[in-house]
Amino acid sequence: MQSGKDAGGAVASVVSSDNNIHSESGIPGHVVAAIDINTTANQIYRHNFPDTPLWNKTIEGIALDDFNKLSFDMILMSPPCQPFTRIGLQGDISDPRTKSFLYVLDLLPRFSSPQLHRLPRFILLENVKGFESSAARELLVKTLTGCGYSFQEFMVSPTSVGIPNSRLRYFLIAKMSTSFSTQARSELPDVFPHFAEADSSEQPTVLSPTCPGSCQSEEEVREGQVLYKLETAADAQRKRSQNQDLSIRQIQDFLEPQREGDLEQHLLPPRTLLRYALLLDIVQPTCRRSVCFTKGYGRYVEGTGSVLQGCTETQMESVFAGLDQVSEEEKVQQLLKLKLRYFTPREVANLMGFPQSFMFPEGVSTLQQYRTLGNSLNVVVVSRLLQLLVS
């Protein structure tokens, strides 16, 4: 979990080798310290990993000697993303929230534990799209190169591992002393079977999804199609192509068994339906796509994540066709037929690749669960990158 980035502190874990095996990646490793300053994220982390040392402090508040005493082989970090988001101010390294990241880069050449007498062997970093063109990225690459690391950079979404959720993120993996071999590069199709490496220039190496079948132009969308929401014909075609990609699993594989009473608390209220109906991203259980879930899911509607159509017997086109021609009361009655609901926190966790053993402790509200999940990484994607990193 990584809500600390929301609070302005970098999220990091430092790992050493031992005989404990990570259940998803299958790589021997033991987290010697997890660092975050978000109270809720730490409460959830401690509930799931009670034996892992958890430091509730800012990165820049940790002295070099304290880091070196940990004798770690690997750094996993997710610096605050707000300085790099496309819809933000894009303050980059001038944003105070990059302070912890810059502190790590300053310390990196001096990391040397008493036992290992060397720099950490492996580094994995995650951030949002936009980081790849930032001054922070340039400083990161310069520091890694100066320390003798070789590295690869990726833009990866969970769809690359067959998960029906779009969450495009920047990743960098770095390895000490040895370069990424041709063999390691050839393993990319095995690690991300639905992605292909783009260029290997100085710009970030990008993995982009292959188009399932031939992509039609906007003009080729079938005649008479109802665009039942505020979307273009190209948007409708893109969604249809995504739903036809059989390499991606269906949404229903990630849903909880629901009793009728359990669904009530997740249904979108009439007021929300009336105001935001034309802005919703609606998916059905048989769909093979959903949009990125953000920390605002469940609290805000526009651009925070997909909602699920609970009543699939009702045709969506029949509900949205002519919706702007009826009274508000009739509009609400029409929309209620779809039984639109939010995905539950457990279902969002499933789409984020979290194992079934992952649990939220009592006392963490539904909105807090959504907020923490929205600031998290996809577990399966990170595990595949770790496999590539240590291969």
Range of strand content = 15-25%
The residue-averaged pLDDT reads 82
CA-based shape: elongated
Strand order of the largest sheet: 3-2-1-4-5-7-6
- In N-to-C order, the SSE pattern is EEHEHEHEHEEHHEEHHHEEHHEHHH
| Helix content range | 25-40%
What Rg is obtained from the alpha carbons, in whole angstroms? 22 Å
Number of strands: 12
Query: Whole-Å distance between the termini?
Result: 25 Å
Largest sheet: 7 strands, mixed
Low-confidence stretches: 6-10, 196-227
Structural class based on helices, strands and sheet pairing: alpha/beta
Task: Quickly count the helices.
Answer: 14
Please provide a written account of the structure.
The chain is an alpha/beta fold and 391 residues long. Helix content is 28%, strand content 16%. It has helices at residues 39-48, 64-68, 99-107, 135-147, 182-186, 188-191, 233-243, 260-263, 270-276, 316-320, 328-336, 345-351, 366-374, 379-390, and strands at residues 11-21, 28-35, 54-55, 74-78, 122-128, 149-156, 169-176, 195-197, 207-209, 282-283, 307-309, 340-342. The protein has a 7-stranded mixed beta sheet with strand order 3-2-1-4-5-7-6, sandwiched between helices. Strands 10-11-12 form a 3-stranded mixed beta sheet, with no helix packed on it. A two-stranded antiparallel ribbon has the order 8-9. The longest helix is centred in the middle third of the chain and has 13 residues, at 135-147. It starts with 10 loop residues before the first strand and ends with a helix. Mean pLDDT is 82; it is low at 6-10 and 196-227.
